[in-house]
Amino acid sequence: MTIKKTPVTLRPYKRVQESYQKLKICRKCRSFTVLGERACPSCGKQTLVPVEKYAATKVTRSHWRSRALLLLLLGAGLAFADVLWESILLLVVGIALLYLLLTMQKRATPALHRIQLEKCFIRHQSGLAAGLNRDHQSAVEVFQQGDKPRTYEMLREIGSLVQNDRLRMEQIMLLQTFRLRKDMDLMLEPLLMESFNAELVAYIGEIARIRRDLIRENTFRYMLQHESQIMKLPNGNAIMALVAGAAVRKQRYMKLYPYLLLRYARLLPKERFLRLYRYVQVQGHATSSTPLRDEVMRIYEEKYKWDPDFEVQPG
Ligand SMILES: [Zn+2]
Known about the structure:
Mean pLDDT: 92
Oligomer: single chain
Helix content: 55-70%
Number of helices: 13
Order of helices and strands: EEEEHHHHHEHHHHHHHH
Radius of gyration: 30 Å
Strand order of the largest sheet: 3-2-4
Number of strands: 5
Bound molecules: zinc ion
Shape: elongated
């Protein structure tokens, strides 16, 4: 399972709060895409707009329609008014109503944006699926032309809206051909699958080596869930130890996954083990004994008893 890895440069991934913020729609042909900035991949016109903006425009338009209708009614009322006081009364009521309408519209705008977006997605359901499919097709074409980093970037964009294992697998396979670096904009949790997958495990191992901060709850859970299968891999043991090494990064993880630490404490490099040792020291109320504490103390006695770095720190 040794793949030749090539150094690559990846463009940073633009993160958004909601995945649909990545989605664009063509004002001409109503095609959807997550790729491309201005030019529509379907009709080629420079008419792409973020779907969010598209929905907002529709809401604004309907706001203006209501305002115009109110003004029209007011105008008609004024035309039919016989005496001055009627006109004044109408004008006062009209202004009050307009004020009320504007306030209500302003307050309802965020909710209306959401409703409009939902409507848009429901109305164009098949178009949306077709658009994302076409995006995937373009990624495959780019792959066939040999541009792997660009393919990965495209799949990553599509992955922000489409969550399926096939797409995850394609991204992992590509990532495995890259020489990964700490400064790369990498991600892990969106690529996690339900079932055991050796490629994914290898990728997690690599991430645990260069970007420990990306190893979080879901990854620990995945590794523990599939531990027996991971251990059958040639370097499964080492990968489990790397992930255990990531768990000592936070007190919270050490509290959540004592079993993981207990099993792989012996394989931790010194600097990682020291963190675990200090944690156990602080946690244990001197006499309390837990399996993890016992194991850590055993390893300490065997390997680090005379190591000055391990001298007890007050606190
Ligand atoms: Zn178009």
